Amino acid sequence: MVINRDTDYAVRCMLFMSGNPEKTFVIGEIAREKLIPESFLAKILQKLAKAGIIRSIRGAKGGFVLIKHPRDITLLDIIEAITGKVVINRCSTEEGRCVLINNCPTFPIWHEIKQMVEERLKHYDFQTLAKKYNNSVTGKPSSGV
Predict the structure, then answer these.
(1) CA dihedral 87, 122, 56, 15 (to 10 degrees)
(2) What separation, in Å, do the N-terminal and C-terminal C-alpha atoms of the chain show?
(3) What is the three-class DSSP state of 129?
(4) Domain 5-138 maps to which CATH number in 2.160.10.10, 1.10.10.10, 3.30.465.10, 3.30.540.10?
(5) What sign has the CA pseudo-torsion 86, 76, 66, 19?
(6) Which residues, including other chains, have CB under 8 Å from residue 128's CB and lie 6 or more apart?
(7) What is the pTM (predicted TM-score) of this model?
(8) What are 51-92's pLDDT values in tens digits?
């Protein structure tokens, strides 16, 4: 699993939007604030909308708004929305399973590690992350996640 640039940008975007979850955001505002090229951001927002995390609002007062509350959005949700399922080894995916899986001593290890990574990423929700981020930006002390 690699946290690529798109995923990093998506996390930045979600941190920003989670700081004000009722607000409708425009691409330019997010791009300027989080230093994300608008062309990249447009594609990222489309993926987040397709995943049911945000929705697009058309019109003069349009933009993007969170569908889910930040406490219900995890790092795993964002990673999966942008890059797909977490993969430790190709054989741990349904389409990558090989004929040796039943006699393979490493398959259970890859599967266990995949589950551990997924569980850990589910632990971090954007309500908590946004509070921690906003406190670090304002200089207020924050508790650890």
Answers:
(1) -110
(2) 22
(3) helix
(4) 1.10.10.10
(5) negative
(6) 71, 145
(7) 0.83
(8) 999 999 998 888 999 999 999 999 999 999 999 888 887 776
